[in-house]
Amino acid sequence: MSPGTVHNVRRIHRIASIPVDGIGPEVISAGIQVLNKLAAVLGDFELHFDHFDWSTAVSRDFPDVEMDKMLVDAMTVRMTSHPETIDTIVATNLHADILSDLAAALAGSIGIALTSNLDPSRVLPSMFEPIHGSAWDIAGKGFANPVATFRTAAEMVRWLGHEKAADGLMECVENVCERGVMTKDLGGSAGTEEVTEAVCIEVEGVLSPWGRVPSIDRRVSTVI
Questions:
Q1: Quick one: which of 37, 139, 159, 202 could link to 172 by a disulfide (CB 3.0–4.6 Å)?
Q2: How many CA atoms lie less than 13 Å away from 150 in the CB half-sphere?
Q3: 8-state DSSP, 215
Q4: Considering only CA atoms, which of 74, 90, 72 is closest in space to residue 82?
Q5: Of residues 150, 156, 112, 118, the one with CA closest to residue 131
Q6: CB-based contacts of 16: which residues, under 8 Å, 6+ apart?
Q7: Structure confidence by residue, pLDDT tens digits, 93-136
Q8: Quick check: helix, strand or coil at residue 134?
């Protein structure tokens, strides 16, 4: 390498964004905003988002995986009574939708739960989405909880090989929540945009190569 020569290697990832309906566009938009801020601050990768649909109808056999079958009502009892006995649940879309909501509630709130649909071979695309549904009753009102989307985004970044970026994003989300910048379902009073902006400011302050900025500069105040 000759003096004065700079080599900039930056990984570029193409991401399929599928906002579906209800509050989907709101929380997905929040996730994209935070991810773009994360990529801009760290500078070692780029994320290009495309809005399109895909469908996968591929099933694979794994004979080394121990499996048993249960009726969905029995599974709800097992999840609440003996969750430690469960690693992975495979179900139809209807049953899985019900069971995933139960799992989210058991963890604390449906507004913070994430889901990843992974292809271990990495031959087919993997999909990442917050576990909650469309929630038409609050769509467009500005107080949908984007935390599940942020946690999902961190999991996607981790799957792409950026461990430190994923850990950093999770730290920023947790910092914001610990300061009380949360939506109503978590006991806060902030809206979707306020939480999103607070996380973006936290990402810039905590993960910037110039170091942390004073916490007072990272606060987001609401004036009504």
A1: 202
A2: 33
A3: G
A4: 74
A5: 112
A6: 49, 50, 51, 52, 54, 125, 127
A7: 678 778 888 888 887 777 888 888 888 888 888 888 887 777 77
A8: coil
